[in-house]
Amino acid sequence: GKHIIFMDVGSDQSLDKVQKLFDSTTALQIKMSLDNHDFAISYVLGLSHALNIAFSKVLSGSGEKKDLLSQLSSTTFKDQLRVAKRVTDENPHLYYEIQHLNKYSLKTIAELSQAIQEIFDSVDKGNEADFVKMMEQGKAYFSDA
Predict the structure, then answer these.
(1) Which contacts of 53-62 are long-range, i.e. CB under 8 A and separated by 24 or more positions?
(2) Which of 14, 31, 112, 124 has the smallest CB count inside 10 Å?
(3) pTM
(4) Rounded-to-integer distance, Cα 138 and Cα 122, Å
(5) What's the distance, Cα to Cα, between the start and end of the chain in Å?
(6) Whole-number average pLDDT of the chain
């Protein structure tokens, strides 16, 4: 269930040598360009980190006790709490570097901000159709059909 990403940085011979080191393993080997890697990672790491940092920031600023929220929580909230706790337990300097050093991070964070604004607007304006449409877009994205 693990994967290793290989990026060609100018030496096909070196890349082939390194890939062969993992041929006997069950790891999924993925080869991509450095630019494709950074773009994908801005979503895989950047978006998931930013979302969980924002979630944690909102909760920590809420004034509500963590224990009370945990007692009241739904399955979704409990799952999100677990993920957010794992993120906040990580090295904040490393997570900053993941965001700061990836040229695609600001684009991804801006997309997250826009999505939050669209959710806000649909709820604030009582626009159920737009809200439902966003959820249906997500469902379609995750659908195997």
Answers:
(1) 53/87, 53/88, 53/95, 54/112, 55/80, 55/84, 56/84, 56/87, 56/88, 59/84
(2) 124
(3) 0.86
(4) 16
(5) 23
(6) 94
Round to whole Å and give the CA distance between 46 and 38: 10
Q: Which long-range contacts (CB under 8 A, 24 or more apart) does 5-13 make?
A: 5/30, 5/31, 5/32, 5/37, 6/30, 6/31, 6/32, 7/31, 7/32, 7/33, 7/34, 7/37, 8/33, 8/34, 9/34
Q: pLDDT tens across 91-132, in order?
A: 999 999 999 999 999 999 999 999 999 999 999 999 999 999
